[in-house]
């Protein structure tokens, strides 16, 4: 509140009662604080969503890699079991 008293003294140095300008300034500052808090909450929620989205994408990529490796392995095993005579020589 020290800054506010300095501002008040600049607006009207002799008068110690809050002027309408000072009151409006305080209201504006409080409004900015509230809006800042609200925006921080909104961006906090969005940050969580983005983090979850990234985790899901990493999971999808990893599962595709694993699925692809499993498919190659199964294909190889199927080929070997269908054509055993070629590999037993």
Short description:
The chain is mainly alpha-helical and 89 residues long.
Descriptive account of the structure:
- The chain is mainly alpha-helical and 89 residues long.
- It has one domain (2-88).
- Helix content is 88%, strand content 0%.
- It contains 3 helices and no strands.
- It has helices at 2-11, 20-82, 84-88.
- The longest helix has 63 residues, at 20-82.
- It is rod-shaped and about 105 Å long.
- The termini are far apart.
- The model has no long low-confidence stretch (mean pLDDT 81).
Count of helices? 3
Order of helices and strands: HHH
**Which percent band covers the strand fraction?**
under 5%
Question: What distance separates the N and C termini?
Answer: 92 Å
Work out the radius of gyration: 34 Å
Question: What structural category do the secondary elements indicate?
Answer: mainly alpha
Count the strands? 0
**What helical percentage do the residues reach?**
over 70%
Low-confidence stretches: none
Write the layout of secondary structure elements.
Blueprint: H1 2-11, H2 20-82, H3 84-88
List keywords for this structure.
3 helices, 88% helix, 89 residues, mainly alpha
């Amino acid at each position: 509140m020290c800054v506010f008293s300095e501002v008040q003294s600049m607006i009207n140095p002799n008068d110690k009662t809050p002027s309408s300008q000072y009151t409006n300034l305080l209201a504006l500052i409080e409004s900015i604080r509230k809006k800042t808090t609200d925006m921080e909450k909104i961006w906090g929620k969005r940050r969580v969503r983005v983090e979850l989205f990234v985790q899901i994408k990493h999971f999808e990529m990893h599962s595709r890699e694993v699925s692809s490796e499993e498919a190659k392995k199964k294909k190889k095993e199927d080929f070997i079991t269908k054509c055993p005579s070629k590999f037993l020589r």
